[in-house]
Amino acid sequence: MAKKQNHHYSYLFLLPAGLIFFIFFLLPALSSFFFSLTRWNLTDWTFIGLENFQMFFKEDSLSIGFKNTFIYAFLTCGLKVVFGLALAVYLCSPIRTRNFMRAIVFFPNLISTIAVGITFNSLMHPTRGIINTFINTLGLNGPDWLGNVKIALLSIIAVDVWKGVGVATVIFIAGIMSIPEQYYEALQIDGGGSMDRFLHITLPLSRPAINSVIILALIGGLRTFDLVWSMTRGGPGFTTDLLSSIIYKQYSSGFFGLSTAGNVILFIMVSAIAFPVYKFLNSKEVDL
Amino acid sequence: MKRNVLVFLLVVLIGTFAVASGQQSSDAKMAEEERVLTLLVDNATSLTGMIAVADAFEVKTGVKTEIELRPGSAEGENLLKTRLATGEMSDLIYFNSGSLLPALNPERNFIDLTDKPYMDNISPAYKQTVTVNGKIFGIPASSSAAGGILYNKRVYKELGLKVPTTWDQFMANSEVIKQAGKTAIIGSYKDDWTSQLILLSDFYYVQQQVPDFAERFTKNQAKYSTEPAALQAFYKYEEIQKKGYMNKDYLATTYDEALRMLASGDGVQYPMLTFAFAALNDNYPDQIDDIGFFAQPDNKPGLNGATVWLPNSIYLYKNGENTDLAQEWAEFYVSPEGLEIYSKTNKADGPYVVKGVELPSDTPKGILDLMKYFDEDRTAPALEFITPVKAPNSPQICVEVGSGISSPVDAAAKYDRDTEKQAKQLNLPGW
């Protein structure tokens, strides 16, 4: 009897969704594994085994790409958590312009990333940009934000955090709002200060929100592309190249097999980092 | 009340649909009567001449030419390759000749023009650059050009400088300019393709000293890092950077800003292609006669010459609907009539590659400077026109060495390693 109830609907109902999933998700993914083993010009292909992977790992800028990708992902992720949480706590406190401030923090998110990149490109111009013009009026010499090898990547990271911190803040606000008021009242009766409030209630109980932000920001950072491409195109030279921009450059030079191999490697790398982090974070979560 | 509003909205909606579809069907009718060819061009090319020829063709045959713009460099190539692969290509395609062409798979995509009678009038040096597997695929879209140094003659005169014929003189001139408080050598590395000019323009000297370099380079036998004549260019980048001859913001300066600096005299020498004269003429017509040209010098005694860029080409899409019309268009473009219209409206960047077409009398003075090198036979084609192998990351590598991030030897070695990808993709023997 119970068995029959499980088959209340025919499996045929799954067909449309399954078909869409197969054609638009599964098939391209599987074919990309195949084409990564070929020399391919979009119309003809020759099977060459693992040669593409070999060549991809020989790429000169690859070590820079890996290093930059990690720095980028972990730094943007960490900064978004820290600033996001600080902003969320501030914006949950009873200040008068709270709603207005929340909107302001979220605004940068509504602008297209490419537009943000182009805007900051001119703001950060070494001689005519607003930022350096301002620094010059203070009698100091502003650096070449995007041209200096040492700080180019950091400049992009700063812009990414400015743009992305709004989403983190909103998630944190939701997390903090869902903490029942009784905990705070109990703490007040026990005579705890505002620091205790944060350390012993807000922080541990917004753990699910923190985990979501970490996962989202980390994956976003690992496969980021648009901001770097619109600001420096991986330059000067190869200084701000990420894995994704290396792959894109290979693609636009017409090395389709090689760049597909790069994408397979990027996919494996993102999964290899994201899954363990996700598992680890979930195991630490506590129930409200 | 609510219902009335809904009905009203519905009526408005239906009304607009009816109007829109009516519009569409009348558009379709128009297209049937009006024959249209499409031409895809990158957005950095001066279009004046091409449009003039297309207009003349329309007057003659009634066929309109619609110009579609695409971004330049890697992004544009990307778009081209995708459109070719999906069969959504324009009838006529403006694109580079030489090393970048084989990657577009011309035999599959473009019309073979080998047997056209007008090919007899076109110079063999050009035809070689659009030939793949023995078939000719393109017609020259403009005049040829050269790579070297564009310089501001007015400032040269003010400072009492002479056109340098050796690298040391060039450096000495630059020192004088720098002392005078101006930018000696303009760098525009924000548009990173411009950074390659010093490397590419130096090829005249490589070819004079090692005549079979290109051939051996294609076969994986000659390398930039092991051939001293070829390596020399990378040292030139280093010297310019170390002596601080470039504008301070050369990493944030674009090609357009560089031209403005050159025209105004704030910047005095600019390693560039002579095709910049077309843009200078469009934007700074009053200063055009202040700008001159000299070949990038080298310290090899007795050697001084310019590296030549053969014209970019127009290719005809094989799988389009208007192939016959496109062939008619191409024939008109390279006919004496078409070329006369072209050379009248578009200033030449150098000599034409079609027989019997002379430079008009109002050609910019800088181009006449260049003609001396042709008259005295002191020219060689750029490497990209005599080998299909070019490092895809060449712009980034040149930016690195030009801004002091990497040493000349490292940059050359990187260049060599980078070419391997291209050679393997083309499946060349020896790699």
From TrEMBL, chain A:
Tell me the Gene3D superfamilies matching this sequence: MetI-like
Q: Which one GO biological process term can you cite for this protein?
A: transmembrane transport
Q: Where is the ABC transmembrane type-1 domain?
A: 66-277
Q: Does the keyword Magnesium apply?
A: no
Does Cell membrane count among this protein's keywords?
yes
Q: Which PROSITE patterns match?
A: ABC_TM1
Cellular component GO terms, alphabetical: plasma membrane
The protein's UniProt keywords, in alphabetical order, are:
Cell membrane, Membrane, Transmembrane, Transmembrane helix, Transport
Classification via SUPFAM superfamilies: MetI-like
Per the record, membrane topology reads: Multi-pass membrane protein
- The main location is membrane
Give the stretches traversing the membrane.
12-35, 70-91, 103-124, 151-177, 255-278
Q: Which Pfam families match?
A: BPD_transp_1
Q: Where in the cell is it found?
A: Cell membrane
- Family named by the database record: Belongs to the binding-protein-dependent transport system permease family.
- Which PANTHER family is this protein grouped with? ABC TRANSPORTER PERMEASE PROTEIN, INNER MEMBRANE ABC TRANSPORTER PERMEASE PROTEIN YCJO
State the name under which the record lists this protein: Sugar ABC transporter permease
Q: What is the lineage of its organism?
A: Bacteria, Pseudomonadati, Spirochaetota, Spirochaetia, Spirochaetales
TrEMBL record, chain B:
Q: May I have one GO cellular component term?
A: periplasmic space
Has UniProt tagged this entry with the keyword Signal? yes
TM stretches of this protein = none
* Name of the protein in its database record: Extracellular solute-binding protein
Keyword Signal belongs to the record: yes
Family the entry assigns: Belongs to the bacterial solute-binding protein 1 family.
Q: Which first-to-last residue range defines the signal peptide?
A: 1-20
| Pfam families reported for this sequence | SBP_bac_1
Q: Which domain of life is it from?
A: Bacteria
> Which PANTHER family does the record cross-reference, listed alphabetically?
ARABINOSE-BINDING PROTEIN-RELATED (PTHR43649), DIACETYLCHITOBIOSE BINDING PROTEIN DASA (PTHR43649:SF12)
Cite the InterPro entries for this sequence: Bact_solute-bd_prot1, SBP
Q: Where in the cell is it found?
A: Periplasm
Q: Which keywords does UniProt give here?
A: Signal
